[in-house]
């Protein structure tokens, strides 16, 4: 399936690797061991700014959500957030940060290579994490639908859309 990148919501991480200037404080959240080297390099690049580096488990969860919520509620003007880790964790953290009131220019998303994607099932409305590329199939563990992972990402829900491959034939 060929998709025009101008009409898809799949993240273009290379274009988003920037952070607004003027920030005096930076919190770096790194997810898992695979993100450590990248996060360490990033921390050292913020010369002249106060940097907090918080290392978290590889997957987004309650602990990470509570830490991000605490950081965001204590934030003042000039605070920036950098997220380093697997795409699923970075998307989930970005979604939580935007929900907490951060602007896109205050967030630096830096996913490390990972095949894991969070997939939203359009049929039962559940999500699951699967090692699947966009355009490939995954089975929903909740309703057992065979899903095609579509070229649409909900940044609010931090998930790729999955829909039944045989939807057209089910009528």
Helices, strands, pairings?
Blueprint: E1 25-31, H1 36-45, E2 50-56, H2 62-74, E3 79-86, H3 87-99, E4 107-112, E5 116-121, E6 127-131, E7 137-139, E8 146-154, E9 159-164
Parallel strand pairs: 1-2, 1-3, 3-4, 5-9
Antiparallel strand pairs: 5-6, 7-8, 8-9
Structure write-up:
- The chain has about 170 residues and is of the alpha/beta class.
- About 20% of the residues lie in helices and about 35% in strands.
- The chain contains three helices and nine strands; from the N terminus they run E-H-E-H-E-H-E-E-E-E-E-E.
- It has helices at about 35-45, 60-75, 85-100, and strands at about 25-30, 50-55, 80-85, 105-110, 115-120, 125-130, 135-140, 145-155, 160-165.
- The strands form two sheets. The chain has a five-stranded mixed sheet with strand order 6-5-9-8-7, with helices on one face. It has a four-stranded parallel sheet with strand order 2-1-3-4, with helices on both faces.
- Strand 7 (about 135-140) and strand 8 (about 145-155) form a beta hairpin.
- The longest helix has 13 residues, at about 60-75.
């Amino acid at each position: 399936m060929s998709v025009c990148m101008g009409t898809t919501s799949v993240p273009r991480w290379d274009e988003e690797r920037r952070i607004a200037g003027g920030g005096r404080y930076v919190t770096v959240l790194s997810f898992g061991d695979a993100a450590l080297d990248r996060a360490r390099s990033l921390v050292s690049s913020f010369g002249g700014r106060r940097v907090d580096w918080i290392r978290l488990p590889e997957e987004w969860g309650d602990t990470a959500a509570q830490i991000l919520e605490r950081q965001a509620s204590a934030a003042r003007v000039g605070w920036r957030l950098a997220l380093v880790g697997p795409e699923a964790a970075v998307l989930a953290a970005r979604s939580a940060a935007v929900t907490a009131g951060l602007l896109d220019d205050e967030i630096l998303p830096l996913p490390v290579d990972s095949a894991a994607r969070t997939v939203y099932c359009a049929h039962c409305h559940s999500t699951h994490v699967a090692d699947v590329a966009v355009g490939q199939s995954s089975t929903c563990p909740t309703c057992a639908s065979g899903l095609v992972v579509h070229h649409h990402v909900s940044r609010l829900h931090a998930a790729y859309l999955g829909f039944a491959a045989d939807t057209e034939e089910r009528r």
